[in-house]
C-alpha cells in the first residue's frame, strides 16, 4: 500500500523505550519508573436520585518515558478520566479511589494543594487549541503566567524559558511569537504553543486529550512526532487520550481500551492491535480501514452488516451501563500474561 | 471496481465548469480557483482534501446554496439556478445533501418518520412534475418504500419513526439523514463530511451504507471527506483538492496505490494505520507549499 512505503521512510522513531518492563500491562501496580498510578478510581455524578456511575474501578499506571494510550469511543469515560486526574471533574462528581502522582494522592487533595500540582507537575493539552488558548491574551502572557506563579520566576526569566520552550516545540521565530495573539497562528502552530504552555514548568506527566483530533492529517503527523520526541528526550510520562486508533498505533507504547467507564482491555500496543482479546476491541478494529483484518475495499463493506451497531444497542445506552453485559476479558488477559 | 460511466458514453448527471468562489474580505479570499469535473450516473466519487482546500465550498456550489463568482454548474445538462428564498422547481430536488453534523441537520422537534416522509413527498412531487414534462423520474420502477420501511432499511425498528432525533446515536442520526435524502430518489447525493462527526467504528459502516443505498437506486454519490482511508473504500474515482484547485484525479486504485502529486503523496503518507506497528506517519515540514498544477492519471 502506498502510504506504507512513504511511512517507511520515517520509521526511525523508536516504537518503545528500551527499558524491559515498559509496556507490561501492570494494572495499578507501580514500578520504579511509575509517575502516575490510578487505583480503583470510580467517578459518580450525584443527582437527586441515585448517583450515575461514569468511571468504574479504573486501575492504570503511566511510566516515565512512556506514552500510555487511553482509547475509547464517545461516552466511554476517557476524557473524564483525564479530568479526574487533574481534579477538574464537574462539581457534582464524586471521585473515589486513589490517584497517586509520585507519593502524593491527588484524590485526597483539594483547593490550593491541588493547584500547586496542576500545571506544575501535570501539564494538560486539550483537543481544540482555538478554544484552549485565550484569544485576547498574547502568547507570551499565556506561556509565562503559570510559570511565574509556580516557579517564582522573574518576568525576564519566564520569557527566556518561554522562548526556549517555543523553540523546542518547533514554533518559528519564538521571540516574536511571544508578542502575537493565538489567531495569528495556524491550527498546528497553536497546538504546538499549547504543548509549550503545558511543558513550561517541566511537568512529570502530560495529559493529552485528543491533541491532534482537530488538526489536518498532514499537520497531525508533525504534532505526533513532536510528542513522541518529547517523551524520548525529556523522559516525560504521557497519558494520551484518543478515539483514533490509527493515531494510537503510531504514538502509544501501551494501550488501555475503555468502554462504559471501564477498562476492558489493556496491553502492549502490538498485542492490542495484532491480537486483541476482548470482543469489543476486536469489533472496533474490524470496522477500521488499515487495521489487521480490517477493511480494505468496497467488497469488505459488502460482507458487513452496515446497519448494525454491534457496540451500540438500538438507542443510546444510559450512563448507567451496568445493564449492558461486558465480557471481562481484561482480567483473563492479565493473568495469561503474568 | 467498475469503470467510470464516462467510458460508456452516458451523459453526465452533473458538470461543474471552471468554478471560482471568492469570499468577501480585504483582499477577497479565493476559496475555489477554477475547478471542473463531471459526475456520471451511478458512480461514487470521493472529493478529498484538508481544511481550507475548498471542498465544502464546492458542495455548497453544487447544491446551489452558494452562487459561484465565476463558472457554471450544469445539472442534467442545464444550468442550475441558485437556491433563493423562493421555492425551486421540484426538478432540483433530484440533488440531495447529507451534512456533517446530524444533530443540527435533523429537526430536533419533529419525529424522524415525518422527516423521512418529507423526502418521500419530494420524490412524489418531482415524479408528478416530470411526468407532466414528459420525462422519466429517476428510480421509476424501483418500489417505493414507506418512511418506516426506510427506517428498517437502515437498521432501525419500525417504531423508530415515532421517536425524535435526540433518542438516536450519532451514527443512527446520520443514517436517518441518509434515508431522508435518498427517499427523495435523487439522481445525485452530496455528502459533505458526513462521517467526520462519528465514532471511528461507525464511520466505515455509515459511509458503506450511503454508498450501497445510493447505488441500489441508481443515485450518483459525491462523497466529500478529508479521510482518504474511508473514501478509498467506497469511491470509484477520487478527486484531490488543494488550495482551491484540483491537483490530482483518477481511479481510486490509481490514486491510492500510485499517487503522483506531491500533495497526494504527503496526504497518504500522513495517514496513521491502526496496525500496531508503531510506524509514525510522515510529517510534512511546517510551511511546505505544494504546486497547484494538476497531475492526471
Summarize the structure in words:
The complex is a heterodimer of chains A (338) and B (297). Chain A is an alpha/beta fold. Chain A has a single domain, classed as 3-Layer(aba) Sandwich (Rossmann fold). Helices cover 37% and strands 20% of the residues of chain A. Chain A has helices spanning 2-9, 78-86, 111-117, 129-132, 139-151, 155-168, 174-177, 187-199, 217-234, 245-251, 269-274, 279-286, 298-302, 329-337, and strands at 34-45, 52-63, 67-71, 93-101, 104-105, 122-125, 205-209, 237-242, 254-259, 262-268. In chain A, the strands form two sheets. A six-stranded mixed beta sheet of chain A has the order 6-7-8-3-9-10, with helices on both faces. In chain A, helix 9 links the parallel strand 7 and strand 8. In chain A, helix 5 (139-151) runs parallel beside helix 8 and helix 8 runs parallel beside helix 9 (217-234). At the A-B interface, helix 1, helix 8, helix 9, helix 10 and helix 11 of A face helix 5, helix 6, helix 7 and helix 9 of B.
So what's the overall shape of chain A? globular
CATH topology of chain A: Rossmann fold
Low-confidence stretches of chain B: 1-5
Which residue ranges of chain A are poorly predicted, with pLDDT under 50 across at least 5 consecutive positions? 1-26, 310-338
Report the span from N to C terminus of chain B.
16 Å
Largest sheet features of chain B: 7 strands, mixed
- Shape-level CATH architecture of chain B: 3-Layer(aba) Sandwich
- Domains counted in the coordinates of chain B: how many? 1
- Radius of gyration of chain B, Cα only, in angstroms? 19 Å
Strand order of the largest sheet of chain B: 6-7-8-3-9-10-11
* Count of helical regions of chain A: 14
Structural Rg of chain A? 20 Å
